[in-house]
Task: structure prediction
Amino acid sequence: MPELPEVETTANGIKPWLLNKTLKKIKVHNPSLRWRVPENLSDNFKGEKITNVCRRGKYILIETQKNSGLIIHLGMSGSLTVITKEKPLLKHDHVELIMQDDTIIRYNDPRRFGCVLDSEDFSKHPLISNLGPEPLSDDFTAKYLKYKSQNKSQAVKNFIMDGHIVVGVGNIYASEALFMAGINPKKAAGKISLQKYSTLVDAIKKVLLNAIAAGGTTLKDFVNADGKPGYFSQQLNVYGRKDKNCRHCNNPIQQIIQGQRSTFYCPKCQR
DNA sequence: AAGGATTCCTGTTGGC
DNA sequence: TGCCAACAGGAATCCT
Result:
């Protein structure tokens, strides 16, 4: 499941193949994704030079002109692969970006939770414009979280997974960061001290940076831009470890459901 | 208005 | 072993 580190790795992986190159055409093999891939993508982008490839939250932005271009999300099973020599199309290959030099970027997404869209102004696009700060930026601070959580009864785990609060903290790393910070995921966001938020902010940054350094953790279906799977490169302390011993206190890890998502935590270490 | 519930989809997993 | 139901998950959107 691509989380922020996987998206970062993917964006970095495809960047050298795209930057300052020109798009020859875009082939849409199957437009059926979370939102239908626009029919006229190829017309809009044919002959356009790519001026930047970057990440915002879990969106990959392929810029052709200042602040406009393609918006790609990998959903939970999406991947981008660089194709340099002939390779048969796979079942869930939805879109191909074909470059002037015949390099192909293939978008594959079995579960179709992702998207490939275009935008004339990223900063005004509804998917992008209301996003919270980047977790690895200096804007993401304990003070900010404390401010945003004022009077909130919402569980802190759901709070930090809300992209309007902070982007890129997915289900796996939310559990991991809360464990690292020693915070009970059920605790109301509004009742957490500034000091605890400081610990949490550090934990989120650390967990994400670790994963990026490891090339991205994943469960099953992530394939990085080189086409190599990036399985489980990082050790997970609580996620998926129901009934296993806590690595700190040896008591069993619990699994609960919050916001229809599994949360794993240690009731002894996280209060 | 806030926050919980639903929704999209298919590959994998667990139970019988 | 084989079949099938349950499950997982990002995040917009709907609903209360």
The longest helix of chain A spans residues 194-213.
